[in-house]
Inverse folding.
């Protein structure tokens, strides 16, 4: 009798501990925020710690932060190479086309199921073109503070629903990520920013687009740009939608593709999908039953 009571007590304690562990994992802050001086990373295919777990509860959870109901986007190109036409190639005009054709697409609709206290993601983007800063850019992976400072320099009047992607001419080197997004204050306004390496010839960040519509460098930047904008819409301040492990909607579908996506201006892109709680619950997604790209 006493032995049974002891075993039962041990089992209750173990179960309580497991429940406590689960609750802690669900409420933990994102590992990307804890470990670096920059924002939430898009891991490269060759990253040593690349891997997205799913487990028994893979869906995204709303942690209470705001989402972006709509975005005003202006791209920044930073670095001396952006003054070199042979380096620029089709990248700037191509990304103009990419952002300019985003609104109204089925791909833009992959984020619209998510809402928070400030409203619902619409997927709408107003694209205000790009600016070039041909002064010397960073010589090592920059911090969020450096990228926010560049945004403040190039965007004198930022807006709170602004998303400012910064493309540099620096190669990735040994960094285990292709890009990241974050938030910061530029000229007194809290904005959303993103950072992108020069991905020319970078196999670890290459979607292997064989359509022939774009250069390899543009195709790589377009895919990671779709990833970061999708995450900025659903988790702009890194405190809204992510899963138990800290993965955002695009992380959970990283490097998994379905079909080419056609944008509203007729341009065609190879872009990874985004995680949909609704698709997973209905078992209609194309990867782990939860990824969707609008096709």
């Amino acid at each position: 009798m006493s032995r049974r009571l002891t075993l039962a007590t041990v089992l209750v304690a173990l179960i309580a501990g497991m429940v406590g562990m689960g609750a802690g994992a669900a409420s933990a802050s994102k590992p990307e925020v804890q470990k670096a001086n920059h924002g939430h990373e898009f891991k490269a295919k060759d990253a040593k710690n690349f891997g997205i777990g799913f487990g028994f509860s893979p869906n995204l959870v709303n942690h209470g932060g705001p989402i972006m109901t709509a975005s005003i986007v202006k791209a920044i190109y930073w670095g001396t190479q952006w003054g070199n036409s042979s380096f620029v190639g089709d990248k700037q005009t191509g990304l103009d086309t990419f952002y300019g054709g985003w609104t109204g697409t089925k791909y833009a609709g992959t984020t619209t199921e998510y809402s928070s206290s400030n409203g619902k993601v619409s997927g709408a983007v107003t694209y205000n073109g790009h600016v070039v800063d041909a002064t010397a850019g960073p010589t090592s992976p920059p911090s969020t503070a450096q990228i926010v400072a560049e945004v403040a320099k190039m965007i004198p009047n930022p807006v709170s629903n602004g998303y400012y992607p910064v493309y540099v001419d620096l190669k990735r080197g040994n960094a285990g990520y292709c890009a990241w997004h974050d938030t910061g204050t530029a000229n007194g306004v809290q904005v959303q920013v993103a950072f992108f390496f020069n991905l020319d010839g970078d196999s670890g960040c290459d979607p292997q687009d064989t359509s022939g519509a774009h250069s390899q460098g543009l195709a790589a930047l377009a895919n990671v740009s779709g990833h970061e904008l999708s995450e900025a819409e659903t988790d702009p301040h890194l405190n809204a939608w992510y899963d138990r492990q800290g993965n955002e909607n695009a992380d959970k579908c990283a490097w998994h593709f379905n079909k080419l996506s056609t944008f509203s201006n007729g341009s065609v892109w190879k872009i990874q999908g985004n995680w949909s709680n609704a698709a997973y619950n209905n078992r209609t997604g194309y990867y782990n039953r939860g990824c969707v790209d609008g096709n």
Summary: The CA atoms of residues 280 and 290 lie 4 Å apart. The first helix runs from residue 2 to 27. The first strand starts at residue 40 and ends at 43. Residues 35-49+61-248 form one domain.
